[in-house]
Amino acid sequence: MPPTLGAALGLGLRAVVRAPWLLAVGLVVGLAGQLLLWPAWATAWAVLGRAAVLASETAPLDPLAPLRGVVAAANAPRLVATVAGLLLVGLLAEALLRVAFLAGALPTLAGAAAGAPVAPRFAAGVAFGFPRVLAAAVLAFVLRLGASLFALVLALASAWVTARLAGGGASPLLAAAVAAALTLAVGVPLVLGTVADASVARAAVLGDGPAQALAGAADRFAARPGTFALAALVFAVAGIASAVSLRAAGAVATGFAGDTVHPLVTLGPMLMIGAAGAALAAALDLVRLGTIAALACAEDRAR
């Protein structure tokens, strides 16, 4: 039987407190993942900028020449294929880096939550558990994709029914059905995403194979579905609330400067707020991973 949400959150927080160095590793992994996408954007901006300059030199009296040059370059098949290829490679490399981090971080968090003696679990997980965690992550991605497609179909069907009956004639029963469909469109991806994360956690912590890990995660979810659903909702709300709070703090911090202050003056506060946001996101991610690992692997001691 999985632990309650309160117990799982406590284990997740305890794991982060006992292994705080994972926060720095998570920050580095997140930054490296963003850097892997820069070659695609740099290539696109460089080519588009060069096209604008050449177009303005060709027709210096035409104010729209740079815009026409940018549009022509953006529609070039070679540029589109190059940028798309660089983006695909960057996204794939970012995903592999994330899987390597999970392969090391999940066993480390599980050991820290359990109070186990200090051991090189991160290095061992990355070195020996990466292939197993990668296979479980691929299966989890397929599960997430199916849930997203299911939600998209429900959302489109609800929109179609609402548009057809916008002029009147909708019964309360039909309205309730549309509301239920929209609720499922939001809830199913959240819940199945948590089950997918639990399967990855079982592969990393317990050494289960992909199918065995997914079956074990499904059994744990069936034992306490409300706990898994509430955990998904709690961390989704926490992520949104932290992002909104940091944006509001940034607006307040830079709003006092007004229009009379040079933009470079506000660069420092904006960088500090960005660093705080990255640190908060990494901390929330670690607590979420520790909580999911507890739900996927730990037993309720109260039973």
Provide an overview of this structure.
With about 300 residues, the chain is mainly α. The chain has one domain. The protein is built from 10 helices and no strands. The chain has helices at about 5-20, 20-35, 40-60, 65-75, 75-115, 120-165, 170-205, 210-225, 225-255, 265-295. Helix 5 packs across helix 7 and helix 7 (about 170-205) crosses helix 9. The longest helix has about 45 residues, at about 120-165.
* H/E element sequence: HHHHHHHHHH
Total beta-strand segments: 0
Helix content: over 70%
Q: Label the structural class.
A: mainly alpha
Strand content: under 5%
Return the domain count. 1
Average pLDDT level: 84
**Model regions low in confidence, pLDDT < 50 over at least 5 residues:** none
Q: What is the count of DSSP helices, taking H or I runs of 4+ residues?
A: 10
Topology diagram in text:
Elements: H1 5-18, H2 21-35, H3 38-58, H4 65-74, H5 77-114, H6 121-164, H7 172-205, H8 210-223, H9 225-255, H10 267-297
Short description:
The chain is built from ten helices and no strands. The chain has 303 residues and is mainly alpha-helical.
Features:
single chain, 303 residues, mainly alpha, 10 helices
